[in-house]
């Protein structure tokens, strides 16, 4: 969602930020993209298989649960981009053959559940997708009962586990990246200011988990309603909580105009952001953030920008136009499945999509950088740590090329 308003050159006062929040919360739209017609994928003859096992001499069927069927042109274009990327990954796999069959979910949990049942009945050995967490929650028990793993395109860790994995960048992941760097610099006292909603609570849990993993300590937690009235009403309390705790790092999960408005109260109530390290769990790549003095110097984490650019160029050369932001996740999921199949053929493993294979600590190389799955269904991604400046964001620490080595 683009930030609405220019905000001026000297930073935003709480009053001006309130006006931006009014528009920022209401004016979230996606530009119209011409949708390619979604042709049904050809259905190959079903090969008799045992769930979780495969025949090395036959193509391995993978189901893609894409959000086709909403009737909205922009959403259909998003679904098409997801499928395009998944099929691009199939083309790139060498040493294994994947039969990718697409099923529409209509962004509806019941439709997604029905799609999962049909996919399993059709012989799918893995499910890629769906996108939305409510649909993942509907699909997970059906897939688990058939011993079929789900590589969802969601970033909501609340639906992960018991055979379902999330590929989206999570709050836990972005917090871990920032807190790792903070710990290396001797900054271990962490304060958290989060929105009082589901997204904020997921962020809170993610930061707490990341703190345990990085040896840092959450010393203060405060929240606020994400509204034009709720933020100023809570601001003095959440700033005081950070100041009195002696937090050296302050993490915020809000985004866009909400983040600008909420953070503008930090210096207003006595927390000089030059004295602490501010961390945003949302990306701050928009140039508008550079104009906000409170956010200058703030850290944020993103997938490797250079790899993302290479993927965009590759996608555009094949399909024309840029991929949707979710397309890279679909590519990564199918590419990971291909890597597991190639390895299984080399080792004569009859169960290439076992939990052990999916959760390999070596991880996988994707178009967004390296990534791996954890036993609880979460994802760890090799992210680039960025910093807001008064011009364009700069790299604090590059994405790791492998796990265990930050900035390699």
TrEMBL record:
<protein>
    <submittedName>
        <fullName>ABC-type branched-subunit amino acid transport system substrate-binding protein</fullName>
    </submittedName>
</protein>
<feature type="signal peptide">
    <location>
        <begin position="1"/>
        <end position="17"/>
    </location>
</feature>
<feature type="domain" description="Leucine-binding protein">
    <location>
        <begin position="59"/>
        <end position="390"/>
    </location>
</feature>
<keyword id="KW-0029">Amino-acid transport</keyword>
<dbReference type="InterPro" id="IPR051010">
    <property type="entry name" value="BCAA_transport"/>
</dbReference>
<dbReference type="Pfam" id="PF13458">
    <property type="entry name" value="Peripla_BP_6"/>
</dbReference>
<dbReference type="InterPro" id="IPR028082">
    <property type="entry name" value="Peripla_BP_I"/>
</dbReference>
<keyword id="KW-0732">Signal</keyword>
<keyword id="KW-0813">Transport</keyword>
<comment type="similarity">
    <text>Belongs to the leucine-binding protein family.</text>
</comment>
<dbReference type="GO" id="GO:0006865">
    <property type="term" value="P:amino acid transport"/>
</dbReference>
<dbReference type="InterPro" id="IPR028081">
    <property type="entry name" value="Leu-bd"/>
</dbReference>
């Amino acid at each position: 969602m683009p930030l609405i308003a220019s905000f001026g050159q000297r930073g935003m006062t709480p009053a001006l930020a309130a006006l931006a929040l009014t528009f920022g919360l209401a004016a979230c739209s996606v530009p119209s993209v011409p949708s390619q017609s979604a042709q049904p994928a050809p259905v190959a003859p079903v090969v008799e298989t045992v769930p979780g096992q495969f025949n090395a001499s036959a193509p391995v069927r993978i189901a893609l649960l894409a959000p086709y069927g909403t009737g909205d042109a922009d959403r259909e274009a998003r679904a098409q981009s997801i499928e395009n990327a998944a099929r691009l990954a199939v083309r790139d796999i060498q040493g294994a053959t994947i039969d990718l069959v697409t099923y529409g979910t209509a962004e509806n949990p019941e439709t997604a559940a029905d799609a999962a049942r049909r996919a399993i009945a059709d012989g799918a050995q893995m499910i890629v997708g769906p996108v939305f967490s409510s649909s993942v929650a509907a699909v997970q028990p059906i897939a688990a009962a058939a011993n079929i793993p789900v590589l969802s395109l969601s970033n909501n860790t609340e639906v992960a586990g018991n055979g379902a994995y999330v590929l989206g960048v999570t709050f836990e992941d972005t917090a871990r990246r920032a807190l790792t760097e903070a710990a290396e610099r001797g900054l271990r006292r962490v304060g958290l200011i989060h929105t009082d909603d589901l997204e904020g609570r997921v962020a809170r849990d993610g930061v707490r988990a990341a703190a345990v993993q990085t040896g840092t300590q959450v010393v203060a937690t405060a929240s606020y309603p994400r509204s034009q009235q709720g933020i100023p009403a809570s601001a003095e309390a959440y700033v005081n909580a950070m100041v009195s705790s002696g937090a050296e790092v302050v993490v915020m999960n809000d985004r866009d105009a909400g983040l600008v408005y909420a953070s503008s109260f930090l210096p207003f109530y006595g927390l000089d952001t030059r004295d602490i390290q501010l961390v945003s769990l949302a990306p701050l790549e928009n140039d508008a953030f550079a104009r906000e003095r409170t956010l200058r110097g703030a850290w944020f984490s993103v997938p490797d920008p250079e790899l993302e650019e290479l993927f965009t160029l590759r996608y555009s050369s094949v399909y024309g136009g840029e991929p949707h932001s979710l397309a890279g996740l679909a590519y990564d999921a199918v590419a990971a499945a291909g890597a597991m199949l190639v390895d299984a053929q080399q080792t004569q493993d009859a169960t290439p999509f076992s939990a052990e294979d999916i959760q390999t600590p070596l991880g996988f190389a994707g178009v967004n950088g390296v990534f791996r799955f954890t036993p609880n269904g979460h994802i760890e991604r090799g992210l680039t740590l960025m910093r807001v400046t008064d011009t364009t964001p700069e790299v604090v620490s590059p994405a790791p090329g492998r796990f265990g080595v930050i900035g390699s």
